[in-house]
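Case 270 in the screening queue. Each case pairs one protein sequence with one candidate compound; here the compound is L-Erythrulose. For every case the pipeline is the same: read the inputs, emit a complex structure as tokens, and attach any notable structural observations.

Predict complex for case 270.
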Amino acid sequence: MIRSAVTISLLPEARGGPFVFWDQLPAACDKARELGFDAVEIFAPDADTIDSPEVAQALDDNGLALAAVGTGAGWVKHKLTLTSPDATIRRKAIDFVKSIVEAGAAFKAPAIIGSMQGRWVEDRDIETHYLKEALEELGEFAGALGQPLIFEPLNRYETNFVNTVGGGLYLLSQLSTKHVRLLADLFHMNIEESDIAQAIKRGSSAIGHVHYVDSNRRPAGNGHIDLAAVAKALKAIGYDGFLSAEALPLPSSDEAAAQTIKSFRKHFRD
Ligand code: LER
Ligand code: MN
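Case 270 output:
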């Protein structure tokens, strides 16, 4: 069954980013339950923040699952990427992601590689090779903990590696690990795909997570994506994961969350 989730950022440096709730984990989880969300997705500064009694209690108290954990703090806070020309930075980036994968897996949640993929700067082939090496190692690491590793194609302004689901499928086809799946973020897809619903169908079982958001990164229903077509495509491929609201907190966090769940119910529950 497709389930709903909402994002919470616990990283002050990410302020201004597309997260519905900010900083106050227990209050955000209370609100998520009150509105009827099934889960939350956490963007944390480090693994210790996830692997903590506070997170366990906030989820438990509210009967919420952890849908996924972000790894972007490695970039935002420490300027690490998996594809840096500097081998020391690449190793630190892999170790940082591993720590988040481990913390997420304890809650049965996968980790997402978004901004940690970086962008190629010197030599596309060599730096793409670094990306594949990192995904091989991290995919196997996540798989051993019973989780997929979620790789996110981003729009052209955020990466020059993989911008589309098709590009993601090609990347996955070159890996020997079978534990990497794709994240379909509707905001990035609206910029890069010719047809979002077709791209979802093409991604099919390789799609392991969805960021549910509208064209302008406002909550679903407040932009111009054809969400009925998206819902039809996700149902057609038998998608069985989370639709996680990674959206700007506009006009406010509570209203963005309420709008998301309203849209979710309209397209996925009625
Ligand atoms: C992360 O999920 C994402 O979508 C990126 O745009 C954040 O930089
Ligand atoms: Mn995203």
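Case 270 observations:
- The longest strand covers residues 3-9.
- The chain has eleven helices and nine strands.
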